[in-house]
């Protein structure tokens, strides 16, 4: 129950409970000591009465005067503890242990053998075995005292016998407990207000610190730190100091997180900007070449229509790609066609001519092409341009497009330096994170992941001669083409 209460209530209640228990414990110890002292006092009183009976009963034993001995015992019985209640009794015995007279004739009648027989709770020793005073205690705590009466020449002429029941030793617990209860009540009455005041004073800093901790995350950390109280108590001062250090560390961490978030956002913006520039620049070289062709050979109708169609499809690709970067944009793209493949070859010719690289393409169309045109044109442009760079001057690049009902697959091979799957992983990781000018392979991988396809390098044993590197990319051949550009995420 107490742990559920606040400290300002626990402290006074705990003090009162501790004082009450202490008073009761001290009272119990004092009562026990009083009970032991009372028993010893009873024994001392009985022994004094027995000394009196021994001194005054000796001439009566010598004269065998039963009546006067009875009168002596009746007067002396008033000195025995609780004799009126029948809890104590005394008798004068002759030298053989026979009762001459008793204070309670019904229990100690005249002429009855007492010594050497059973008397009440005791098996008393014979008269001949007693040479001095003897005290006996029964299992029920009754007490029997025997004291010899000696003549002037030290001969035993008789005995004084006293028996005290255990009830005569019982302490008056009500009387002994009254001071303890009064002391406990006074302690509670005095300590409750004092404990209440001390508890409120001691618990106030703890409550303030707890309130400050509860405000973390709700208000500014600087305001929370200003609310932490200054305390003089060493332990509470350690707690408040720890809270201040925690708040300071949280403020530093919060500032670092904000700076890191800002840096990450700036890096993302730079990454998107570089990627957009890369993806727009890819078809621009081919489009510029097409414009130059149109300027030089625009008189021929077939050339003009073919070139204008190429420029239109290239510009639509750029528009579709940039529209996909807009938040919440939903761009439905058309399916890939053979014209798109011819456009891709035309767009990479400028880069291929610059490096004297021959580019070839083969197609195996077994089903309807249902992949998004802008996405697949983007992938093929990236793969072919990277292959042209990798092939080097005078190299060869070969692209194969295969379409089945399940997927559309393209394989781009080049005669440049060999590239394994591990090399490809390292390359597009570097391009995606550290190289602002080369995003081609990274974008191909992101498109494959987002669209449920696959992108990887072939094993060396599967690469055809004379090529050294073969990159494989495929997408599921599906009917819905909602374009989501990976560089926008």
Question: How would you describe this structure in keywords?
Answer:
489 residues; alpha+beta; Beta-Lactamase; Heat Shock Protein 90; 2 domains; five-stranded mixed sheet; 16% strand; rod-shaped
- Count of individual domains: 2
The CATH homologous superfamily name of the largest domain equals Histidine kinase-like ATPase, C-terminal domain
Number of strands: 14
Q: Can you count the helices?
A: 10
* Shape estimate: rod-shaped
Output the CATH topology of the largest domain: Heat Shock Protein 90
Arithmetic mean of pLDDT: 79
The low-confidence parts are: 431-438
Sheet with the most strands, sense and barrel status: 5 strands, antiparallel
Q: Beta-strand percentage?
A: 15-25%
Structural class: alpha+beta
Series of H and E elements: HHEEEEEEEHHHHEHEHEEHHEEE
Write the CATH architecture name of the largest domain.
2-Layer Sandwich
Q: Specify Rg, calculated over alpha carbons.
A: 58 Å
The CATH class of the largest domain, by name, is Alpha Beta
Overview of the molecule:
- The strands form four sheets. This protein has a five-stranded antiparallel β-sheet. The chain has a five-stranded mixed β-sheet with strand order 9-10-11-13-12.
- It is of the alpha+beta class and 489 residues long.
- It has ten helices and 14 strands.
- The chain folds into two domains: 2-173, PAS domain (Beta-Lactamase), CATH 3.30.450.20; 273-488, Heat Shock Protein 90, CATH 3.30.565.
- The longest helix is centred in the middle third of the chain and has 64 residues, at 234-297.
- A hairpin with a 2-residue loop joins strand 3 and strand 4 (122-123).
- It is rod-shaped, with a radius of gyration of 58 Å.
């Amino acid at each position: 129950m107490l742990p559920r209460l606040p400290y300002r209530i626990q402290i006074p209640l705990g003090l009162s409970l501790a004082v009450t228990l202490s008073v009761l414990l001290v009272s119990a110890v004092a009562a026990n000591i009083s009970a032991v002292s009372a028993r010893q006092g009873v024994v001392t009183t009985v022994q004094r009465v027995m000394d009196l009976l021994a001194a005054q009963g000796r001439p009566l034993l010598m004269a065998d005067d039963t009546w006067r001995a009875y009168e002596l015992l009746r007067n002396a019985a008033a000195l025995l503890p609780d004799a009126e209640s029948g809890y104590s009794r005394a008798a004068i015995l002759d030298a053989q242990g026979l009762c001459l007279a008793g204070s309670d004739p019904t229990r100690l009648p005249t002429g009855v053998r007492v010594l050497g027989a059973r008397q009440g709770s005791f098996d008393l020793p014979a008269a001949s075995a007693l040479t001095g005073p003897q005290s006996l205690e029964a299992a029920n705590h009754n007490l029997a005292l025997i004291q010899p009466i000696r003549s002037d020449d030290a001969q035993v002429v008789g005995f004084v016998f006293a028996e005290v029941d255990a009830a005569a030793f019982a302490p008056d617990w009500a009387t002994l407990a009254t001071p303890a209860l009064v002391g406990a009540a006074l302690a509670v009455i005095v300590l409750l207000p004092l404990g209440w005041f001390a508890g409120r004073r001691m618990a106030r800093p703890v409550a303030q610190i707890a309130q400050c901790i509860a405000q973390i995350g709700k208000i500014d950390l600087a305001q929370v730190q200003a609310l932490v109280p200054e305390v003089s108590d060493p332990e509470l001062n350690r707690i408040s100091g720890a809270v201040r250090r925690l708040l300071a560390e949280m403020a530093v961490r919060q500032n670092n997180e904000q700076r890191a978030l800002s840096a990450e956002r700036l890096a993302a913006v730079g990454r998107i900007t570089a990627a957009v520039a890369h993806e727009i620049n890819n078809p621009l070289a081919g489009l510029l070449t097409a414009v130059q062709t149109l300027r030089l050979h625009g008189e021929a109708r077939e050339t003009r229509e073919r070139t204008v169609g190429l420029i239109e499809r290239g510009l639509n690709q750029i528009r579709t790609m940039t529209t996909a970067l807009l938040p919440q944009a939903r761009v439905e793209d058309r399916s890939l066609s053979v014209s798109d493949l011819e456009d891709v070859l035309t767009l990479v010719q400028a880069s291929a001519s610059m490096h004297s690289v021959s580019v070839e393409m083969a197609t195996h169309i077994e089903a309807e092409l249902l992949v998004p045109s802008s996405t697949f044109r983007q992938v093929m442009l990236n793969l072919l341009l990277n292959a042209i760079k990798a092939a080097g001057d005078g190299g060869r690049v070969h692209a194969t497009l295969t379409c089945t009902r399940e997927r559309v697959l393209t394989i781009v091979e080049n005669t440049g330096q060999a590239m394994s799957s591990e090399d490809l992983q390292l390359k597009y990781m570097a391009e995606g994170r550290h190289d602002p000018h080369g995003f081609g392979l990274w974008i191909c991988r992101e498109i494959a992941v987002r669209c449920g396809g696959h992108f990887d390098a072939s094993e060396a044993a599967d690469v055809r001669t004379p090529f050294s590197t073969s990159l494989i990319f495929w997408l599921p051949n599906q009917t819905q083409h909602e374009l989501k550009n990976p560089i926008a995420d």
